[in-house]
Amino acid sequence: MSRGAKSADRPVSIDRGVHGGAAWPPLNCGGKLLDLSTPRVMGVLNITPDSFSDGGDFFSRKAAIARAWSMVEEGAAIVDVGGESSRPGAAEVTVAEELRRVLPVIETLARELPVPVSLDSTKPEVMRAAAGAGAGLINDIMALQRPGALAAAVETGLPICLVHMQGTPRTMQMNPRYDDAVEDIHRFFAARILACEAAGIAPEQLIIDPGFGFGKRTQDNLRLLRALDRFCDLGLPVLVGFSRKSFLGDLTKRAVSERLASGLVAGVIAVLKGARIIRTHDVAATVDALQIVEQVHCQG
Ligand code: 7PJ
After folding, report:
1. Distance from the CA of 211 to the center of ligand 1, in angstroms?
2. Which residues pair with 84 in a beta bridge?
């Protein structure tokens, strides 16, 4: 594992001396490059019945594609398409239903957008089909632990984002417990990276995400953010998603629609601790925030 390995015994910052230039070569996402020489924004595109609820598949798809274009215009470097809600307590959807939601949208976006399209899914069948439709990255909140997912990911040849989650979306917030959230999750990634390597996925193809809100109490999320630089010694790009999540509401007592400021600050802190990609619904504001971080830390 060579990429970023330099950072192992140094203080982590977004300074070019530590993470810049050759330390983060671009990721080849099915032919489109994801440049990680500066921190990037992944825009969230949910294709669930409640996200574009103006009735009918055609209008929903049109609305989703329009939203993807506006996120790219706002500066998203990648668009993450998901057809299954992972909110706490959410029910699973079938493979057929998930494919019906995401495939036509991925197919169109992969053809038309100048940036890569990622698939947010845990299902091997959906991974294969999405790769066939032109997806450039697989974002799996189960870190390829579903039966068949590792093999499907190998077949696609695409980069993978491994996300940590304790439990399943239905159960994850019921009673999350850790001996030490940071060390437990660090060990989890070390093991998953080895499992991926054994299956034939090179570490250079991997991104890691500690999974804020996925089976974590507010105090666990805070500890993880405070110690995010700990994950950089694994030598892989770190992705984080805070957007509108309930621990932000817990800390600020704000409703979902009022969590922009807290999400932005969490994202900036994460980038200062070495995160390379922020997954968010609020692309324009996040791009602005990262521009300031970048100008302060990397110029002059
Ligand atoms: C995340 C995700 C996240 C990654 C969701 C939501 C729930 N993928 N998919 N990281 N969250 N990699 O957006 O609130 O945090 S779905």
Report:
1. 7
2. none
Domains with residue ranges and CATH for the chain? 36-293 (3.20.20.20)
> Contact 34/137 with Cβ under 8 angstroms?
yes
Helix, strand or coil, per DSSP, at residue 44: strand
Cα-to-centroid distance, 289 and ligand 1 (Å):
20
CA distances from 279 to 19, 54, 79, 186 (A): 19, 25, 9, 20
- How many angstroms separate the CA atoms of 133 and 117, rounded? 10
Block residue for tokens 């001996």:
179
299 C-alpha vs ligand 1 centroid, how far in Å? 31
Query: Residue 81, SS3?
Result: strand
Test site for ligand 1: of 79, 118, 120, 280, most ligand atoms within 8 A of the Cβ: 120
Strands 239-241 and 277-280: parallel
Percent of the chain with pLDDT over 90: 81
Q: Which residues form the pocket of ligand 1, taking CB atoms under 6 Å from any ligand atom?
A: 44, 86, 120, 139, 141, 161, 163, 209, 211-212, 239, 241, 243, 245, 279
> Using CA of residue 13, residue 160, residue 81, residue 95, what is the dihedral sign?
negative
Residue 240 · residue 210 · CB < 8 Å: yes
Q: Encoding tokens for residue 69?
A: 């274009």
pLDDT in tens, 157-195: 999 999 999 988 888 888 999 999 999 999 999 999 999
Active site residues: 245, 279
CA atoms of 130 and 138, how far apart (whole Å): 9
Give the mutation target among 44, 78, 286 for probing the ligand 1 site: most ligand atoms within 8 A of CB.
Answer: 44
